[in-house]
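@channel anyone free to eyeball this complex?
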Amino acid sequence: MIAVRFLLAVVIATSLVGGFNYLVDPLQIFRPARFYEPGYPTEERLHNAGLIRSQSFDTIFMGDSIGLHLRSSEIDQRFGTRVVKLAMSGSTSREQNFVLKAALERGPKQVLWEMDDLLFADVGEVDSLPYFPADLYRMNLKGTATYLFNLETGREAFFLLLRSWNWKPISNLRNGLIRAGYLKYDKDNVDELNTFDEVLAPSAYNADKCLAAYKFYSLPENRSRLGAGYDQDVMVRIFERDVISLIRERSDVRFTIYFPPYSMVQYAAMRDLAAPAMLRTFFGFNSYVLQRLAQFANVTLFDFRDDAQMSHDLSQYGDAIHHSPATGRLLLSRMAEGRSRVDGSDPYRSIEQLKTQINAYRLPR
Amino acid sequence: MLFSSYQFVFLFLPVTLAGYVLFDRFGGKARSLWLALASLAFYAASNWQFVPLLLASVAFNFLAGSLLLRGKLTERPRFAALSAGVAINLLALGYFKYAVFLAANFNAAFSTHLVVDVLLPVGISFYTFTQIAFLVDAYRGQVARYGLPHYALFVTYFPHLIAGPILHHKDMIPQFEDERARFPSQHLLTSGLMIFAIGLFKKTCMADGIQPFVALAFGPIQPSFDQAWIGALAYTFQIYFDFSGYSDMAVGLSLMFGIFLPVNFNSPYQARNIIDFWRRWHITLSQFLRDYLYFSLGGNRHGVVLRYANLMITMVLGGLWHGAAWTFAAWGTLHGLYLCVNHAWNRCRPRIPQSLRGTARVAAVMLTFLAVVVAWVFFRAESLPSAFAILSQMARPGMFVYGDRERLAVVYIIVFGLISFLAPNTQQLMGYDHARRTVGTSFQGKPVSVRLQYAAACLLALGILGIQKNSEFIYFRF
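replying in thread with the prediction:
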């Protein structure tokens, strides 16, 4: 039975790699790292699957690229929490809902959620997103097998183990392979994941960069980008499906939701360059969202979009919408102090103020 | 469905093999029918919307072939029937493959705004060529009468359906018809598995492994001198291991069903000249272009000038067969020029002294390889200006980056180069002889060793472990 012997050899070889990957478990989806120094991949959708299982936390921080650069330690310091940061750049509410549900199974009591109107894009199920390892979150047979019986997992596991040896040539080799993009588990500290080097902040966040976004949207070929996918009915449906259903389902969890400030350049572009309906949709959708969220007892709501001190300071933006880490820290402090909190009896106040500010705003020359 | 996918390896293949064993008890026709149905299911799994087109193509060509074979037509109507048959095949291929390209060029030339939105049915280039060959041979009287089930299986046979090899009816249908052949022995099954293992490893571990470095030259940023060379060389090896890996998998899969497919690659980067290269690279396409296009144009029968003209036409059309883009036309033109120069050189080359033959051989292999690399730049580039920009960077040794990524890429290129230039190929390792229908005698004349079997088992394991989501074969696009 030559064929049987051959197949048996294949099974043994595959199992050896699978077994090794299970023992080391570089993503820490089965257990936290014990006999080696853990490493974490920068890719949020991948490392989140491991963080959910390897970290101990009582609060989840969720958001997109706007909130991504915050450090868990900065949040903990201000709120006295033990946060796991699961924010994902370019994420939609559908992805966030999926990841939140997986993380809430670990029993945390609070969600700190950075939210903006760009989340509510009409995309398919998470399983249809080629870059999203949904089965790894579900920990089903397919997800587990794809993780274990995988050369890439083995490669990362092997080099994480070698690192524990603490031999300089090995560590140089590993660093070189990380820089070459061959190894992906490049961060040693969870708190460092997707944070920003403060030294680089002045070159990354400044008024020139912020104003360049206006010029970008001014080009005829880019104008349509401003209003792409901006349909109030669709956005409301998605918001109800991904946000409201979760808040209602998990009434035992406190949701602290905040809307970060865009720069005034974004609003000026929406006002001057997009179709007139866009600003109407923006106000209409956000008014709906604020009054809807204000109805829930387990929601605490903050809106910083009318905070002129932040939104008018263009030096703190990397483009029209992404604020600096310093602004992020300022937001946290203000939330901790209870400022910019939306009053349930008057949920439209911040949006009305923003309307006035947009009408009065003129771009600096 | 991809050969290098979990669905194929763990579901489709075992089920199809089990069905084949079961239906084998009811005779050759039953198992052929099962295999044809399984092949349609294989195609439908990812291209269900094009199944009617495939079936229509099979039915049309079978009827046209029958007319040519059985119809009592005189010469002129027969030729008209052949012409109509070939034209309809080419029109279908032209519509699905070239309509968007033609519309874009028309728009560019006449400032119009024609919008043509046509999806390319996977495998259409391969099954159209296969069937054109059938019609031409039917016209030439070189075809026996085949039954529809065997003909349908010949066209739809899943190991070759999507990306070749381009099969010849005379080679394949008698194998399907052979009633004496029974479900293959353990020997064929194991040999097939081993060849499949080598192919899967080539694809998932080698081609997909080197693929990220291709972007160094072909990415959005203008490459430096070293990046341009690294990217071009990386693509040179990626396309070889991707396509030859696919072809090995096709041969191995077919062997599991007791059917011998022709080999498509024979260590092409070891070629000593471009003529030799085309005898080693995508062999079944080269043979098709030679037999049904180059010879039909007159081949070398009408003097040197027409021979070169025929070579150029054949290669330009061969380039365009790969895809509707000027880059493919440029690639074909370049290879046509190479072939003309090669033939001209053969007519006037000086005698090389015995003492220099070894050096000359190495130089010839390196020069051929270099010419092939340059041509691949056109094949891979997004546009002609982009190809020229990369080539100009390759010719400008001023700017170097040579960072960690580039250093790692060089290691890959050296390893892949050593394998391509020095290692025996799959058929040599496995003693696969398509013409004699034998396998299992290694290139040193000995039976395939147990050690090699275990090595192949490890390769299959690594191939499975290396499977990545969303990694298509390059030739699926053609």
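from a first look: The interface with chain A takes residues 186-187, 189-190, 193-194, 197, 205, 212, 403-405, 407-408, 453-454, 456-458, 460-462, 464-466, 469-470 of chain B (CB under 8 Å).
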